Amino acid sequence: MKNSIKIFMMFVLVGFIGYSQAPETNQKLKLDESVRTGVLKNGMTYYIKNNQKPENEVTLRLVIKAGSILETDKQLGLAHFMEHMNFNGTKRFPENELVDYLQSIGVKFGNDLNAYTSFDETVYFLPIPLDNPDNLPKAMDIMEDWAFNAILEPEEIDKERGVVLEELRLGLGAQERMRKKYFDKLLYNSRYAERLPIGTKEVLENFEYQELIDFYKDWYRPDMMAFIAVGDIDVDKMEKDIKKRFSKYKNPKKEKERKEYDVPNHEETFVAVATDKEATSPQVSIYYKNPKKREPVTTYDLAKEQIKRQLFSTMLNNRLDEIANSPNPPFTFGFSYYGGVVNDKKMAFTSFAIPTNNNQLKALEVLLKENARVKKHGFTTGEFERAKKEILKRQENQYKEREKTESNRYVGQLQQQFLSGDIYTGIEWDYQFTQETLPKVKLEDINHMIDDYIRKDSRVVVFTGPEYGDKSKKPSEDQILNIVNKPFSNVEPYQEDELVKSLIRKTLEPGKITNTEQNEALATTTLTLSNGAKVTYKKTDFKEDEILFEAVSFGGTNLLDNDTYQKVRWAMNGLSEAGYSGLNKNDISKFMSDKIARLNFSVSNTTERFRGQASPKDLEYLMQMLQAHFTDLNYNKEAFEGYKAKQKAFMGNMLASPNFYFLDKSFGFLNEGNPRWTGILPDDKAWENTDYDLAYKTYKERFSNAADFHFYFVGNVDEEQFKKLSEQYIAALPSNPNKKEKITDLGFRQKQGDFKKVFYKGNDPKSSVRIQFYGETEYNQKEATALDALGEILTIKLIENLREDESGVYGVGANASMSKLPYARYNLSIQFPCGPENAESLTQAALDELQKIIDNGPTEEDLNKYKKAQKVDQDESLKKNNYWLGQLTSAYYNQRSAEKLLTTMDRVNAVTAKDVQKVAKKYASGDKYIAMLMPESEK
Known about the structure:
By secondary structure, this protein is α+β, with helices and mostly antiparallel strands. It has four domains: about 35-245, Cytochrome Bc1 Complex, Chain A, domain 1, CATH 3.30.830; about 270-400 and about 420-485, 2-Layer Sandwich (Cytochrome Bc1 Complex, Chain A, domain 1); about 525-730, Cytochrome Bc1 Complex, Chain A, domain 1; about 755-939, Cytochrome Bc1 Complex, Chain A, domain 1 (2-Layer Sandwich), CATH 3.30.830. Helices cover about 40% and strands about 20% of the residues. A seven-stranded mixed beta sheet has the order 12-13-14-18-15-17-16, with helices on both faces. Strand 4 (about 115) and strand 5 (about 120-130) form a beta hairpin. The protein is globular, with a radius of gyration of 29 Å.
């Protein structure tokens, strides 16, 4: 279960509120008519909505207005502990029967079945496939048991202590150490500073059973709960079942008061500078806490305020993006927003940045300067009009997709209504309200909003990041306050550049479609163009406003010599910083502000690729981007140097993190002697070795021949328009139909043998273990499917043993696969974090679970869990554009028939326990690589 601890950047973007006829500004909003809601006599709230996406599935959610903020000093961490216990035994599902049952119907533990605990709420998620009529009644049993029928047996509580302590251990590290240095200032005199949901080691190890029982009895009560059901259901039947099940439960005779806690204001400006040698990158934040309490969005006037805030945020952050895209930026990323601190009860205007060159003072100054620029001069009419168009475009996209919106989104919005009081009014109403309201918003209204945000009281400045090599360069509180108190009285108005009118500047010579082939089984069409390029498209109705795109060409960096590869490896991704068609990134961003189309490229060892997406209306802009990337990528060394500065700032200290260090060193060991291995991240030497000119030349070579690409489009394609655009843009790309590149295998292999390596990094008592079986093989589709089954089944057994029985891990997983290109190979890996004292025993326990499958094969029950989960995933995936695009491009890359995706479940269902046992024996009985990360104190 994921523990969603909302700390300081919890920003909830509330859905826009709807509109019908011109209302009074204080008129109350109404809940979307498609939602059935009510409150039982015992105070329990329910929301029900029929929704067909995904089909034959329902998403259930139990929301409790009780989190860590309600704990006593003896209960620190028990709100979260209670969340764990609900998976370990209830009235109808004792011990681990709940997880076992859900796995049997295709619900995966941790992926689908989940929960979180925050300061103010605890939430349980349960998506249920409805292919069996017994599933929904069973799911309702689970929800009822979670709410009122947990079995808190001492033995099970003691077993779960270890799991929760492992979760606490996972949270240790640089971020936690730095948080302790600034949290008391950010949440000055607030109970929130003392009530982190994970709790404390002392309480988790020693709390008395009655404390947990008391928390459950006190706070898991009807008047604190909401039950939400959205999906392919009969609303009347669901309402009847809710009333029958939940009405019988009563609130305690002596109800504990559910107090509301605040984050107090303060006159002072607090400054916190927290550094840590394991921190990966510097960050800067300044908070202006607002004394006003947030009002729930329940009226038209408050809904209009939400739109005004989004306009303000859009314009200001567009300016910060422009600065980040400049040649020598002060930060790699900057963002400002008005939102909640810890929760949405305490609001603050926050400006945040990740500085380049570790210059936090400069980044802070630029953030404050931009705030001052808005305060003094406001925004321009051009910015205002672009922001309105941008918001309208997003709203239009949601409106077009209203019949295709998945249940998860609705469930989340209804949860927000219960917790915050905001009224969910529905996508159609939202769209109408936004269309009607935006033209009435005046620029001067937005310009003055910052006056309410920027304050001299209740300010908190937080600097976090790596330790300074030269401690004299560490910013002092006085230096920071001097910048914060600067008047910035001489700040100039924002300068509006002239807007561009097109994404391409070259005259194109369109080509023709020379051949058309239909694949009726896949419902795809393949066009052969006059320049030799191949285009395959699949028209779908899964999304109204989405077309996904990918183009693949064989070749990649394996065609480069070692020296060239080393010089361009880290440089290639920076080429797009220059822009295209003579336009810089900011020109392009402004031009595309009211359009939905994006494109990026990548070069792997074996391929060149383009990936992108567009709304059907904006598909031509995606085509123009493709044309420009092929023929007119800008050459701009200064932009590349800016990219390097940003990347060095973002990644420069990554290897100080024990986790990144472990990945780098463990894989580095396997790749010793490979002249093309330079680590998972570039260091200063690697950046110095980059050659922009050579990277640009290499790019031009790799993306010079459209005839060597296959272009794929999946989505709501207008076929006639698509064919015309293909002729106009793709057929106009340069090509050489006689030149076809192939996938090249350079022959480099990871070292083989039976190895165990221990790496030491970090101060915290944390370890990680990775067990890996790998090597070359002859590709076999049947074995590949059986290997996939082995990985999933082994994960089930590892969770049962290492987590539930041993209480030694919070999370554990296995993955097994077989790849075909550039050479046939297999891989089986097991990963888990744990305490250093348990690393050896848990490693052996994991290997023992694998050995059981080698010796005896999996049980039919576990094999059926795998098959059921695959069926649920496949049924859902076949109705998603990204799945079809991925399968089509994968088939092309692996040189197999794409029609095999239609028989995926035939292959899955054909797998037997003996097949799984056979591949386990064949691929996991021999040499292995065990890599362990240990803290430096264990040396």
